[in-house]
Design a protein that fits this description.
The chain has helices at about 5-15, 25, 45-50, 55-65, 100-105, 110-120, 150-170, 180-185, 190-195, 215-220, 225-240; strands at about 80-85, 90-95, 135-140, 175, 200-205, 205-215. It is of the alpha/beta class and about 240 residues long. The chain has two domains: about 5-45, no CATH class; about 70-240, 3-Layer(aba) Sandwich (Uracil-DNA Glycosylase, subunit E). The chain contains eleven helices and six strands. Helix 1 packs across helix 3 (about 45-50).
Length: about 240
């Protein structure tokens, strides 16, 4: 069996293998290459490049089949995203929780209802056929056990998926919700208090996309006093989008 270059790249991106050996090597009893190839990209770079060439259907299939980090062993379902894939706004959260893991959709349960209310208040909706739709995704596509914070290797494994989603959606604006999501997306260790209230820039598909940071809805459910700050963040996002 032979694979064309595109299919081989997709297999590699999804971690499905296979490992191909030269017949001469097999005949000589070699188990495979003894060292990494001297030329060509590193495996992580090759995987990222393959993911970066995928369309929506391929990308969703790759997420569903991903085994790039140990979270694949404990997940119920992957959580790819929801909403209109050509929406003017993209919302990025941290990781699936228990309900998201069970349903395969981001931001469900109480936090999801609060997010929907927040979006409705500014005329947006996760409904794909809404007049002002959004696309919602997470930094991680699998639930961390016990809803713990994502580990750096987990974020790194999922990052090519999220970057490709941003490239495909081509949003006018990105709204990042929560400290962990903001630090992961912006590659910073700054606290959320230092990230809110200003416009950040994300590089995607050769262009810069404005990004606004706000609190995660789950945090707001525990800290009602900060809802006023979250409303200010939404107003900032509207102002930035209006001036884009």
């Amino acid at each position: 069996m032979s694979l064309d270059r595109r299919r081989a790249a997709l297999w590699q991106a999804m971690g499905l293998g296979p490992e191909w050996l030269r017949r001469a090597a097999v005949a000589a009893g070699e188990a495979g290459p003894k060292a990494a190839p001297a030329l060509g990209p590193a495996p992580a770079e090759a995987r990222a490049a393959a993911i970066g060439a995928m369309g929506w259907d391929e990308l969703e299939a790759a997420v569903a089949a991903c085994t790039a980090c140990p979270l694949c062993q404990s997940r119920t379902r992957t959580v790819f995203g929801v909403g209109n894939p050509t929406a003017p706004w993209m919302i990025i959260g941290e990781a699936p929780g228990a309900e998201e893991d069970a349903r395969g959709e981001p931001f469900v349960g109480q936090a999801g209802r609060l997010l929907d209310n927040m979006l409705t208040s500014i005329g947006r909706s996760r409904s794909s056929d809404a007049q002002q739709p959004v696309f919602i995704a997470n930094v991680l596509k699998c639930r961390p056990p016990g809803n713990r914070n994502p580990q750096p290797d987990e974020v790194a494994a999922c990052e090519p998926f999220l970057l490709r989603q941003i490239e495909l959606v081509q949003p006018r604006l990105v709204l990042v919700l929560g400290r962990v999501a903001a630090q992961s997306v912006l590659h910073t260790d700054a606290p959320i208090s230092a990230l809110r209230g200003r416009v950040h820039r994300l590089a995607a598909a050769g262009r810069e996309v404005p990004a606004i940071v706000s609190y995660h809805p789950a945090y707001l459910l525990r800290n009602l006093a900060d809802k006023a700050k979250a409303w200010a963040d939404l107003c900032l996002a509207l102002d930035v989008d209006a001036g884009a």
